[in-house]
Design goal:
Layout lengths: L2 E5 L2 H8 L6 E5 L28 E2 L5 E2 L5 H15 L3 E4 L5 H14 L5 E3 L7 H9 L6 H28 L10 H17 L4 E11 L2 E10 L2 E2 L24 H11 L5 E12 L7 H12 L3 H13 L15 H15 L35 H4 L3 H16 L5 E12 L2 E12 L13 H8 L13 E11 L8 H11 L4 H13 L3 E4 L2 E4 L1 H13 L6 H15 L5 H10 L4 H9 L4 H4 L1 E2 L7 E5 L2 E8 L2 E6 L11 H12 L3 E5 L6 E7 L2 E6 L11 E3 L11 H8 L3 E5 L6 E7 L2 E7 L5 E5 L11 H9 L17 E5 L6 E7 L2 E6 L2 E4 L11 H21 L4 H20 L3
Parallel strand pairs: 1-2, 1-5, 5-6
Antiparallel strand pairs: 3-4, 7-8, 7-13, 8-9, 8-12, 10-11, 11-12, 14-15, 16-17, 17-18, 18-19, 20-21, 21-22, 22-23, 24-25, 25-26, 26-27, 28-29, 29-30, 30-31
């Protein structure tokens, strides 16, 4: 007798084998084995003529989905069928969530087992959990499958109905989505607020005081009994004090005069208030809170967080990472309390075990929070993990242990001081007992350091004391525009609004970035002009699709379907085919949408028109009878585009680019220009004889106004040869690339070794000695380990020709696919999660064929090479200096 167990991934299969009897065979399905058609080539020939074929859902026949086995999964399905022939029992052990239930259902439908079949679920991969799950197998939950299928069909209807409309009216390749479009609108609304924001300026005084040689500071808060204005008193729409506020607004002259008036006067402590504060630890992690905190602390994207967490789960280190429950089992609570007692002492234990209640709608209480796996928790040091896996496990371990620790007891101290008619305030905080803060401080990597940072110690003051004022400083302040969303704050907002589900946030944010709706800059999600255009179109013609409350209600309905409280078919009919259904709306609105207007982004206080073109956004201004256009640089955000910026961009089109002078050796004019990728310098004019003049980007830390002729000559001379490496004899150069200034050591057959220059280094003056120093430092980042020794991001399967693995790895320039000695980058716009074996094989074939073509091309005549050069020159010209 043998039992076949099917899980999703090879990693999970390897781990689970350790805990099953020898006669159990574990195989991986490599994720989903069936799905709706992803491309025209996957649509079955029997339905290709149907009007709904592209949807993959027969909307006229009760929304019957058409499921296909992708090319890259056919071999896997065959292997699973062969394995099933030798089995007397089948156990489907995919993940315990809706997605996992759906995968099990599809496997059952495809394999059509004639042997007894069971569904096994578990939330951690430990020996105890697997043994318990084997004894408590169940049937596939058809209701859960139906709910997931409805969700999949609904997402397909929204995406495949609206996306073609965006291609036609705005730009090819854009996409709309049930949750994605709402998330993009949130980013756009925040950027609109930033654009409408008016800065306010105010002044106050800061005092540097001393009591018995103990220094402390104090802030001006009142003047003659009236509150002194601060940032909260300003109206962001006007930059003025909000109407009705009774405050004193100090200008620079007022602050300086007050400072002089108070100099040498007696200070008096008028009141002291001490208020005890108790802080409780945060609940253990859910999917959403883990994404938020890892983004804040570790600067990990939601996508990276989920990928690393998946690896930790499949290797048996943590419990299942897709959960919206903060519940902990009795076993987990006991393990956490044991850690607290051993590592921190009994005084740090909470008096009673803490159990948390999930407040979010639709939470599945049967699931547990994310925690270390097992009945005893391995400390981070005991795991043997390293890098980002260790960092994420450490975060999960600390949060789980901290939730069973004692409260933190603190004292908030407020001291009021008076000098003449001016009232000052000093605030302090004393940590009387750190409690859980010894293990975990939200938003800080080092709890001990954070404890010190949190304490603000004031001297031992009492009412009537006269501290000595050492210095008074007049300080100016400017109100700040609303902060842009980070991945953490966007995830928090989506969850609080009930939009989508936490398990989907990582892929949603990834899609927003991949599709060009947002740029991730310094951890902030900045919406693009394309995002503005798409959001405006959807707001005007399909307001429900981007309405958070509508999307939240839709999510609730999907949960009701899962709970059996709503019928899926009537809901889909009403949503898509009803009088106000999506299909009807698209037919009605399509003719009313003017493509030129749809591609135009209307911005307040801007006469210039912003349009979305084939090569990206550009500005358009009428100049007499003609129209002048100029590309908008990628780093210029919608909030920052003002009339002054427009003038700068158009100047080189109307009056020509700025001339820095003539090159000392060639005598050619050096221009400074602005292109799609920012400012750059150019040597000479573009002519038929010189179609590709020498160009060089200006480093981001060098303002365009500060570029001199000398700097320009240096940039145009890049790359600089610094010398040879004393150990290898290889050449070392300095230059500027897409990721900034760098040095490179050419090691011949061993390849090239790159290092980024530090902020203090200058690419034009960096020395050979400094380059050798940088090269001697260990390489940081994703490229630090050889791909042979580091773990794959994803294992796609084996190559059909030689049966060797095809995997995706992290590389210095992003994820890449590796098969044998052939590497090919994952194309821009495609995520690691979306990549399939069939797509990877196509990319590998095209890489191999292009390599062969390039080899053959080298033997061709010089004339063909000249044509190629001319063509590449045109492409470069388009990129750097396009006028859409």
């Amino acid at each position: 007798m043998s039992t076949l167990v099917i899980v999703e991934s090879p990693t999970k299969a390897r781990t689970i084998r350790n805990y099953l009897p020898k006669d159990y065979r574990v195989e991986a399905s490599m994720g989903h084995v069936r799905d709706l058609p992803q491309s025209a080539s996957e649509i079955p020939t029997t339905i290709k003529g149907e009007k709904w074929a592209q949807l993959g859902v027969n909307v006229d026949a009760d929304f019957e989905p058409v499921y296909v086995v992708p090319k890259d999964k056919k071999k896997i399905v065959t292997q699973l069928k062969d394995a099933l022939k030798e089995a007397t029992e089948l156990i489907l052990a995919t993940d315990e969530d809706r997605e996992g239930e759906s995968i099990s259902w599809h496997l059952y439908q495809l394999l059509k087992p004639k042997v007894p079949t069971k569904r096994m679920v578990f939330h951690e991969i430990t020996q105890e959990a697997i043994k318990k799950a084997l004894k408590n197998c169940r049937n596939i939950d058809e209701q859960l499958v139906r709910a997931q299928e409805t969700r999949r069909i609904l997402d397909r209807l929204v995406g495949y109905t609206l996306s073609p409309l965006l291609w036609e009216k705005i730009a090819w390749g854009l996409s709309a989505g049930r949750v994605q479009s709402v998330a993009v609108r949130l980013l756009v609304k925040k950027e609109r607020l930033r654009r409408a924001f008016h800065e306010g300026t105010y002044w106050d005084l800061k005092a540097y005081l001393e009591q018995g040689k103990a220094p402390f500071t104090s802030q001006l808060v009142t003047l003659d009994g009236t509150k002194v204005a601060n940032g909260s008193d300003f109206d962001p729409a006007t930059g003025q004090i909000t109407a009705g506020r009774n405050v004193v607004l100090l200008k620079e002259a007022d602050a300086v005069a007050l400072k002089e008036r108070l100099a040498g006067k007696t200070w008096n402590v008028s009141d002291i208030e001490e208020r005890p504060v108790t802080r409780k630890p945060s609940p253990p992690f859910t999917t959403s809170t883990l994404q938020q905190e890892s983004n804040r602390k570790l600067r990990l994207s939601a996508r990276d967080t989920m990928r690393i967490a998946q690896n930790l789960y499949e290797q048996g280190y943590i419990t299942y990472m897709r959960t919206d429950s903060v519940h902990l089992s009795e076993q987990a609570i006991a393990a956490a309390r044991d850690c607290v007692e051993k590592l921190y002492g009994k005084q740090y234990l909470s008096p009673q075990p803490r159990q948390y209640t999930t407040k979010s709608k639709g939470a599945q209480e049967a699931h547990e929070a994310i925690r270390p796996a097992g009945s005893t928790f391995r400390t981070p040091q005991e795991t043997g993990l390293s890098g980002r896996e260790l960092a994420l496990y450490d975060l999960i371990w600390k949060r789980t242990v901290a939730c069973q620790m004692a409260d933190s007891r603190q004292t908030q101290i407020t001291v009021q001081l008076q000098v003449e008619d001016a009232g000052f305030r000093s605030s302090g905080k004393r940590i009387d007992f750190p409690g859980y803060l010894r293990a975990y401080v939200e938003g800080s990597d080092d709890p001990e350091a954070a404890l010190e940072d949190q304490e603000i110690i004031l001297p031992n003051l009492k009412v009537g004391d006269h501290p000595n004022c050492k210095e008074l400083e007049a300080v100016d302040h400017e109100t700040q525009p609303p902060a842009r969303y980070t991945e953490a704050t966007l995830v928090k907002t989506l969850e609080s609004e009930g939009i989508g589900r936490p398990s989907t946030y990582a892929s949603i944010i990834g899609t927003i970035i991949d599709k060009g709706y947002a740029q991730l800059v310094s951890n902030a999600l900045i919406p693009t002009f394309t995002a503005f255009a798409v959001t405006s179109l959807l707001e005007k013609h399909f307001p429900d699709i981007v309405d958070p409350s509508f999307t939240s209600k839709m999510e609730q309905t999907l949960d009701d379907i899962a709970d059996g409280e709503a019928n899926w078919l009537p809901y889909l009919r009403e949503f898509y085919l009803g009088d106000k259904g999506l299909e009807t709306l698209v037919k009605e609105q399509k003719s009313q949408i003017d493509a030129t207007k749809a591609r135009t982004v209307e911005l307040e206080n801007l006469d210039a028109k912003v349009r979305i073109g084939k090569y990206g956004p550009y500005i358009e201004v009428e100049n007499g009878e003609s129209v002048v256009t100029a590309s908008i640089p990628k780093d210029l955000t919608p909030a920052d585009l003002d009339p002054k910026q427009v003038e700068v961009l158009l100047k080189q089109k109307t009056t020509g680019p700025d001339e820095l002078g003539r090159h000392p050796e060639t005598g050619e004019t050096i221009y400074i220009k602005i292109g799609t990728y920012g400012p750059y310098v150019q040597l000479g004019d573009k002519t038929e004889e010189n179609p590709k003049p020498k160009q060089a980007s200006i480093p981001k830390n060098v303002p365009k106004e500060n570029v001199t002729l000398e700097i320009a000559v240096g940039l145009l001379a890049l790359p600089r040869v610094l010398g040879t490496h004393p150990a290898t004899g290889g050449r070392i150069q300095a230059s500027i690339g897409p990721y900034g200034p760098y040095i490179v050591h050419d090691q011949g057959k061993e390849g090239k070794d790159y290092r980024s220059l530090k902020a203090a280094d200058n690419v034009l003056t960096v020395s050979l000695e400094r380059a050798l120093e940088l090269l001697s430092e260990p390489k940081k980042g994703r490229s630090s380990a050889n791909s042979k020794s580091k773990a794959a991001l994803r294992e796609l399967g084996n190559h059909p020709e030689d049966d060797s693995p095809v995997n995706i790895y992290d590389g210095p320039y992003g994820p890449y696919i590796k098969h044998g000695k052939t590497n090919v980058s994952v194309p821009e716009g495609q995520s690691v999660e979306d990549m399939t074996l069939s797509k990877a094989l196509e990319l590998l074939v095209s890489k191999t064929s292009s390599s062969k073509k390039s080899t053959r091309k080298t033997s061709k005549t010089t004339s063909s090479g000249a044509k190629s050069t001319a063509k590449s020159s045109k492409t470069a010209a388009k990129k750097n200096d396009s006028s859409n």
